[in-house]
């Protein structure tokens, strides 16, 4: 399971090529979200110099049902260690968090890197990536598999030509699903992509509302295979180029100018949390996943004793250099454009704040 594999559900609505859900990255939807958000309250975060006690308050936008390094940093006391008072604000995923960061409703947000790219493509320039959130690995890194219905006739990804595929409305998974089809010789435009709500997968496969659906975690995957007779086709996210920065923490540029020290300390705390996460045992990760990731591993383990060992936990970047690859991320953005999921290509380097690449932090 990826650290960020549990994502919020959207409203079920049919759509071809472009998603219509709240987290879709269609240019029009994002532009409207950001335009509306720009009428917000503005950036009210205190500057470094204004923190009389030396503790900086940071408003961090996250979405529900998710396990990220910021939550671990809070739990383990890393934010407190770095003189930070981090206040989480729960928002819907994708453009909504970018919009809130853009207008200063939050100081820092966490979400899909493609949503940041979409904001830049639509002319909004007050958001910069301060730290990679999730780096695509060469090993299986997700339990968000595609599962085909028993009556669909689909036995492999190559059989998805002309089929209906239900995916949760999230930029990363929708581009990845199209890329997976392309890599198996299937024209993505030949398939019909529909936006689904998490929890409806079994009924969609049973009624034929979709030939294949995205499962959200290993427990759901096993249940669909064992109880619904579904066939596991593997994870679309594994089609993403290795070392791609798929998710990220991003900051409001005005806040970053006023609070460079707080930003650096925030990233330092996130990297400590990443090191903790990457060294944790399967059982420790299971506890974290149950607390923050929306997956009750202790309960699932009673039915599937080997579920913790089978889970793909992924990895968080603890250092700026190494696995994170700007060229791979640039290619990922170009892929989104080629599938009509992003308005136009944007350059990654201007989107990176200094902490995204610097090694020396407080």
TrEMBL record:
The protein's name: SsuA/THI5-like domain-containing protein
Domain SsuA/THI5-like: 72-276
Main location: periplasm
Domain of life, per lineage: Bacteria
Family listed: Belongs to the bacterial solute-binding protein SsuA/TauA family.
UniProt KW keywords: Signal
Subcellular location as annotated: Periplasm
Pfam families reported in the protein's UniProt record: NMT1
Organism in which the protein naturally occurs: Streptomyces tremellae
InterPro entries: SsuA/THI5
């Amino acid at each position: 399971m990826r650290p960020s594999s549990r994502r919020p559900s959207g409203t079920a609505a049919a759509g071809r090529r472009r998603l219509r859900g709240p987290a879709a990255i269609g240019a029009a939807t994002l532009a409207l979200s950001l335009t509306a958000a720009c009428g917000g309250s503005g950036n009210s975060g205190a500057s470094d110099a204004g923190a009389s006690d030396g503790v900086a308050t940071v408003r961090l936008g996250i979405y529900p049902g998710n396990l990220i390094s910021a939550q671990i940093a809070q739990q383990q006391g890393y934010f407190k260690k770095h003189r930070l008072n981090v206040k989480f604000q729960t928002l819907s995923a994708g453009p909504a968090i970018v919009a809130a960061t853009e207008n200063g409703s939050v100081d820092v947000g966490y979400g899909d890197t493609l949503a940041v790219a979409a904001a830049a493509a639509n002319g909004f320039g007050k958001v910069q990536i301060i730290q990679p959130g999730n780096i695509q690995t060469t090993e299986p890194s997700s339990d968000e598999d595609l599962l085909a219905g028993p009556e669909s006739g689909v036995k492999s990804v190559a059989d998805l030509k002309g089929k209906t595929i239900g995916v949760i409305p999230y930029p990363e998974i929708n581009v990845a699903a199209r890329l997976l089809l392309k890599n198996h010789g299937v024209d993505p435009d030949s398939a019909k992509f529909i936006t689904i709500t998490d929890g409806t997968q079994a009924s969609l496969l049973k009624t034929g509302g979709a030939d294949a659906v995205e499962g959200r975690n290993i427990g759901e995957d096993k249940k669909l295979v064992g109880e619904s007779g579904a066939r596991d086709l593997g994870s679309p996210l594994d089609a993403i180029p290795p070392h791609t920065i798929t998710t990220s923490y991003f900051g409001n540029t005005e806040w970053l100018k006023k609070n460079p020290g707080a930003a650096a300390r925030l990233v330092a705390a996130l990297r400590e949390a990443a090191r903790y996460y990457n060294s944790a045992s399967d059982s420790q990760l299971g506890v974290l996943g149950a607390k923050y990731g929306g997956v009750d591993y202790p309960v699932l383990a009673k039915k599937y004793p080997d579920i913790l060992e089978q889970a793909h936990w992924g990895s968080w970047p603890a250092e700026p250099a190494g696995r994170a690859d700007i060229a791979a991320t640039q290619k990922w953005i170009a892929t989104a454009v080629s599938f009509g999921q992003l308005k136009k290509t944007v350059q990654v380097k201007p989107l990176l704040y200094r902490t995204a690449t610097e090694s020396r932090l407080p």
